[in-house]
């Protein structure tokens, strides 16, 4: 058996990490204007390698003169994508297990706003993104990129406001977009009492791992959709228990709210 030198193993690990980072970056910018800039950057790097290989002195001098500003230029051009990549890394389950992220502050803000809107019978549709990205749905609304607060959520769902009828999508501690359009559930036999918001919440929960909270405009009833199931007619205590069970699972189950599936 041929012995493997430690340096060779380190080089392989180094290459794999760099390849993974570039792959994730390109996957995130694919289909956006940034992807064209990324390709242009790759072409420039390729030209610099060719210039060095064939000793093209003039071209080499130009490229070497630009090297000092390349890093700054890269950060400026790809700032949104780099921020999204770092956010994605920070939301990794392994890192979350090693470093306890303050998530209850966000849940507290959601609960406070939902309680207020339920009392006022103000319709709301709040989506909490988990492991599956919701970029397609974010792009259907208006980007906010604002810190989650109960006041802002209540403002978004003020009756007759431009964003009132759509969904607000939360990622981490940010409200990334509002007024977003969600897919309606095609499940047959749903209760006729369910409105468009409930069907949209269930539709997204059937397609992704997102958690969707609904406040009925007609009754003020609170509902939650997750993993293809819709639980409705919750009070604030039951909603708190459901969110705690999802984001901090425990063996015990929360008290039994009504579950909506197919009618028997």
Low-confidence stretches: 98-103, 250-264
Strand order in the largest sheet: 2-4-3-1-5-6-7-8
Following the backbone from N to C, one meets helices and strands in this order, namely HHHHHHEHEHEEHEEEHE
Reading off the top of the CATH hierarchy, the class of the largest domain is best stated as Alpha Beta
What's the main sheet like? 8 strands, mixed
Distance between the termini: 66 Å
User: Can you name the CATH architecture of the largest domain?
Assistant: 3-Layer(aba) Sandwich
**Inertia-based shape:** elongated
Provide the residue-averaged pLDDT. Answer: 81
Q: How helical, in percent, are the residues?
A: 40-55%
How many β strands by DSSP? 8
**Total of helices:** 10
CATH-defined superfamily of the largest domain: DNA integrity scanning protein, DisA, N-terminal domain
Q: What oligomeric state do the depicted chains represent?
A: single chain
Give the radius of gyration. 24 Å
What is the percentage of strand-forming residues? 15-25%
The CATH topology of the largest domain turns out to be YojJ-like (1
Number of domains: 2
Helix/sheet category: alpha+beta
